[in-house]
Amino acid sequence: MIDTFFSTGQLGGTRALFMAAVIGILFGWVLEQAGFGSSRRLSGVFYFRDMAVIKVMATAMVTAALGMTALVASGIISLDAVFLNPTLYRAQIIGGLIFGVGFVMGGWCPGTASVGAASGKWDAGVFLAGTVCGSILFNETFGLVAGLYSSEPPTISFVHDILRVPRNWFVLALTICGILVFWLVEWIEKQTVQADRFSGLRFLKQFSFILLVVGCGVFLIPEKAVTPEPELPVAPAVVNGGEKALLADIEEALDHMEPEELARRLTAGQTGILLVDIRSKKEFHTFHIRTARHVPLTDLTTVLLPHKNKGLIILYSNGMTHPVQARDALYRMGYRNVYILTDGLAGFVQRCLKPVSLRSEPVPVAAAAEINQWRVFFLSPPAGDAPPSPKMPAISYWRGY
Amino acid sequence: MKPSAKPYMNPYAAGVCLGLVLLVSFMVLGAGLGASGGIARISAAIESFFLPQHTWNSPYFGAWGKQPLNYYLVYMLAGTVIGGLASSVLSGRFTFQLEKGRQCPSWKRIVLAFSGGLLVGYASRMAQGCTSGQALTGGALLLTGSFVFLICLFASGYAAAFLVRSQWYD
Lengths: 401, 170
Prior knowledge:
The complex is a heterodimer of chains A (401) and B (170).
Chain A: H1 14-33, H2 39-43, H3 52-73, H4 89-106, H5 110-118, H6 122-140, H7 142-150, H8 159-162, H9 167-192, H10 201-217, H11 243-252, E1 256-257, H12 259-267, E2 273-277, H13 281-286, E3 293-294, H14 300-304, E4 312-316, H15 321-332, E5 338-341, H16 344-353, H17 365-379, H18 392-399
Parallel strand pairs in A: 1-5, 2-3, 2-4, 4-5
Helix pairs in contact in A: 1-5, 3-9, 5-6, 9-10
Chain B: H1 11-28, H2 36-50, H3 52-56, H4 72-90, H5 106-127, H6 131-140, H7 144-161
Helix pairs in contact in B: 2-4, 6-7
């Protein structure tokens, strides 16, 4: 299982920014080579003159979907390590409809216009100026559309789950659809421009065949996906008191809480902290931070509503993936008291619970005493709480998540 | 296009390359490709240059803090421009021009390009992504909202295409 900058919460770090720029260069290069530095070529798709947009987009989508499916199925990368755009039907339907009109009017989309402007196209520069104004307009008129985000909880939704088919069957179907689309658009181009721009029945046959083989190939990888577990009944809330001090905390703190700070607050017995574990129920039962409460992502909005802007809500998972997404979604719904645990449970275990004797770096005496205190507090079976599995602490130090 | 310009890459080969770049992005960054996010961050920086307090307190840009440019998509956008420039120069396709049909007056093309940009900039924020970040990236991850966005985008694009076709008349 590989770590990504996103899963380790370092997407804002210097190395991630550098890699983003490198990937951007490759992205710009490919777009330009594909001919997407030309608005005439891009808008040709809407007049059935030049279907390159569909050919490139569909090929890229099928390639990446097959690749991701293979990587996930073989356990190389977890979907948890990738930012998943939440589904918001109304915002995305209306946004898509407006976007299409803007696309055909301007002849560009944001990525291609960047490449077009870089290859000297004035109209791309004008279009980009328009997108800047459009973004500012959105910010200024956000109040008008805020209802789109607050009325519908953002969910991570996969098409294959909606259609109730296994992921690899859906990817195979997507591949076959892609191939059919390629043949259709080649036929359309032949009708409209009569040009043998792309002399390649033979190539297209070979390409279709290869895609089909790869599409079937994903079935050979044994599926390791975990089915989601039924939800845990909701425990009674534990938040009360301490409002004044907490409001001061909220003023100062950013959206992250460092593991050490959380450990200090919890061992000190501070009230008004709602610690939320958004991992699977199974993982929660294996081990969780003391006082944490298990809330599945789908139930987050209902369970957290009574705590909206009251006390501190701290979200954690193994890494940073889902908590960041959840926090952003909650922020949009008006929550101003949601924090994420820096580096997730993995970081908490590593930084607060790892025994001093196992650490490679020197630990000052005071810090060592604090760590021992935390170990006693978090690793001893608390009264009334499910006893942690005796195996757990030993594994987590070494797996490194 | 200049007479010296090299032909474009085979679209299917370009598509495979684009898909592989997207896969690399997933594996390294843990996030897909995006363009409108970078533009929006730059917009926030521009607005906060003129109206700092107003921008920091605004409901949408305000959430990005006082350093909106410190974000991976801004760097990706800068990379996209560099990659596009390098590719167009090396392939002999770099030319200063206003792309339009010969019969279309320049002002009309400029007005349409700007208005299109305005709608696209607004819609990308509303849908939380553009053709790169929402349609392509989310589509490759099989996310429902991305497919919905993609279908709506092409539906309205084809519906509106007839009305603005004259900008491409030769």
